[in-house]
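Action item from last meeting closed. Structure (354 res):
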């Protein structure tokens, strides 16, 4: 990659000085699978990237060995630095990308509030809904860092970290209330194998990312019980209907659900064995306990916790989400997994359109 996005234009502050002054500095918070893979996209796109995480050995290995064997074994990373020092990571960063598990986002970001560069844009890669508040991640970010919503964006789409880290071709959505913010982020992460589209439907894009994980759990459970592609396709299609109903009730645009962040990510997550949510659901379907399934899956399966906040949101807004309700029942141990299919089919018949 040559050049890369320059430090100029909106939204902005003055470029940091020194040799890297002409390259856009980006801090990625969270050195897990997606934080690391997205840092790679940004570096390939020409940004000056620093990765922050809690684990000193991961930071050393990313900086010195160009590898994160814990989360992306076998992947050779482009040149980037990594640190456990948040102040060092955030210094001079015009874009800050948050890629920690959703339920720790607020606690992770709040202590960084005073370290953020004035005018920095903050991007959520997270696909969850905060328990206890039912808030979307861009809202949590704006509150935790005390910045205007117009400076917050979300990147979401069919983006399995391992495939992106292998530089397999993929597209995604960058959503922000402010078109300038979305364009700024899209320019920063546009690489030869990664194509971001902009969108201003932040609510729709974030709901798609969080709820598809719940539907992927349901698909995994069904496949673990031995059901085949008809069941999978039924759950994906009716899952999309659930996501759309909730999104419409919260003010999202219907076309978002047919796009990359909606149908696109739903298909990738429900079909791929690389998905942690799908895999965890499958383990449950095969008879593991929740604790066993979490341990066997490894990594963050956001749907386990976010299913409860999604269902809570649905109840608050009077939206019917039977698949989500079934997943919450199974996860909480209150509903036997082998009765889920029959319970979903026993509901009163209705028109497909509602
Ligand atoms: N992996 C993917 O393919 C993928 C793709 C798109 C979006 N996402 C989303 O990105 C987010 C991060 O997922 P991931 O795949 O990188 O997860 P991961 O499980 O690979 O890594 C999570 C990282 O967060 C760190 N972490 C955990 N608790 C923390 C805390 N209290 N404070 C700071 N760091 C903490 C862990 O040490 C780890 O480095 C999730 O919301 C996920 O849904 C993941
Ligand atoms: O591994 P999962 O289930 O978190 O899914 C990964 C991504 O969200 C797919 O786009």
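Sequence:
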């Amino acid at each position: 990659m040559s050049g890369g996005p320059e430090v100029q234009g909106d939204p902005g502050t003055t470029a940091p000085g020194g040799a890297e002054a002409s390259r856009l500095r980006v801090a990625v918070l969270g050195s897990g699978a997606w934080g690391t893979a997205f840092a790679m996209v940004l570096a390939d796109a020409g940004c000056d990237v620093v990765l922050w995480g809690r684990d000193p050995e991961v930071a050393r290995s990313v900086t010195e060995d160009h590898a994160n064997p814990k989360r992306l074994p076998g992947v050779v990373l482009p040149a980037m630095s990594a640190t456990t020092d948040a102040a060092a990571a955030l210094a001079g960063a015009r874009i800050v990308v948050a890629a920690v598990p959703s339920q720790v986002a607020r606690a992770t970001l709040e202590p960084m509030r005073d370290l953020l560069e004035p005018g920095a844009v903050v991007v959520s890669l997270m696909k969850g809904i905060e328990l206890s508040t039912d808030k979307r991640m861009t809202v949590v970010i704006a509150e935790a860092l005390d910045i205007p919503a117009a400076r917050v964006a979300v990147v979401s789409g069919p983006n399995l970290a391992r495939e992106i880290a292998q530089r397999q071709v993929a597209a995604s959505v960058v959503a922000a209330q402010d078109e300038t913010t979305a364009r700024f982020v899209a320019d920063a992460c546009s690489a030869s194998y990664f194509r971001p589209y902009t969108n201003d439907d932040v609510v729709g894009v974030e709901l798609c990312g969080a709820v598809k994980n719940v539907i992927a759990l349901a698909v995994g459970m069904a496949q673990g019980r031995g059901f085949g592609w008809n069941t999978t396709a039924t759950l994906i299609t009716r899952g999309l209907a659930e996501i759309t109903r909730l999104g419409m009730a919260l003010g999202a645009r219907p076309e978002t659900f047919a796009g990359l962040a909606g149908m696109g990510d739903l298909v990738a997550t429900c079909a791929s064995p690389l998905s942690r949510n799908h895999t965890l659901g499958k383990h449950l379907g095969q008879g593991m306990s929740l604790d066993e399934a979490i341990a066997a899956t490894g990594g963050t399966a956001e749907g386990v916790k976010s299913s409860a906040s999604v269902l809570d949101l649905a109840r608050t807004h009077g939206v019917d989400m039977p698949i989500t309700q079934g997943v919450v029942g199974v996860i909480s141990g209150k509903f036997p997994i082998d009765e889920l299919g029959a319970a979903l089919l026993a509901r009163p018949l209705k028109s497909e359109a509602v």
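Note appended to the action item: Residues 30-35, 53-55, 71, 99-102, 104, 108, 125-128, 159-161, 299-300, 302 surround nicotinamide-adenine-dinucleotide (ligand 1) (CB under 6 Å).
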